[in-house]
Specification:
Blueprint (H helix, E strand, L loop, with lengths): L2 H6 L8 H8 L6 E12 L5 H9 L8 E14 L5 E10 L4 E11 L4 E6 L5 E9 L5 E12 L2 E4 L7 E9 L4 E10 L3 E12 L3
Antiparallel strand pairs: 1-2, 1-11, 2-3, 3-4, 4-5, 5-6, 6-7, 7-8, 7-9, 9-10, 10-11
């Protein structure tokens, strides 16, 4: 049983069967998919220096666009401590530049949260709360967040948090996974949004 099954328990069975298969993630058996982001939108132009810094660490990026090719790879691996970690590697293929959005996830079984370190190396940390909807979709919402500076983590004031909402589903009619991600700040507005679809590929 890998981290998302452990986290959701019986609720894991409420997910669409294809999402159950996607998030089972056996150790060292990556999930790989390709698709298209129908829409990608970053934030305000005055935030470009932040996006350029974030892009260097494979986190957020300044580009926006429509119908952008996309790929995703999720790999579950065993850490030296024996803990399971899932590596997320997302690639967005803009016409002149490929951008990346990496993350590393483990679970806290006591608090029932996912611990999410964003970027390579990580710049930010966020608690994530996972839930299965009655329609069989996966909903993810962010919680407590921290800046990561070397080996130190500093709390982020709530007014500066990037509040994350992710909805992932499966469209039976078109046989594709669907995804909608929104990262919003109460002071600065939208930080990032992307929405699209993808199909699993054999490795």
């Amino acid at each position: 049983m890998t981290i998302y099954q452990s986290l959701l328990g019986e609720d894991f069975k409420r997910l669409h069967p294809m999402l159950q298969q996607r998030y089972a993630l056996p150790v060292d058996a990556p999930f790989f998919a390709t698709g298209v982001m129908h829409k990608i939108a970053s934030g305000a132009k005055w935030m470009r220096p932040f996006y350029r810094l974030a892009a260097r660490t494979r986190f957020l990026f300044p580009e926006s666009g429509n119908n952008i090719p996309f790929s995703i790879r999720n790999t579950c691996r065993v850490l030296p401590s024996g803990e399971l970690e899932v590596l997320w590697e997302r690639s967005f293929y803009f016409a002149k530049k490929t951008r990346y959005f990496d993350a590393r996830m483990t679970i806290d079984p006591v608090q029932k949260i996912v611990r999410d370190y964003l970027g390579s190396p990580a710049l930010f940390y966020s608690d994530l709360h996972f839930a299965a909807t009655k329609e069989g979709k996966l909903m993810i919402r962010s919680g407590v967040q921290r800046f990561v500076i070397a080996n130190r983590e500093c709390p982020i004031p709530k007014i500066l948090e990037g509040r994350v909402i992710v909805e992932e589903g499966f469209d039976d009619n078109r046989n594709v996974f669907t995804i909608h991600v929104s990262i919003h700040n109460p002071l600065f507005g939208r930080l990032m949004m992307y929405a699209g679809e993808f199909t699993q590929q054999s490795m």
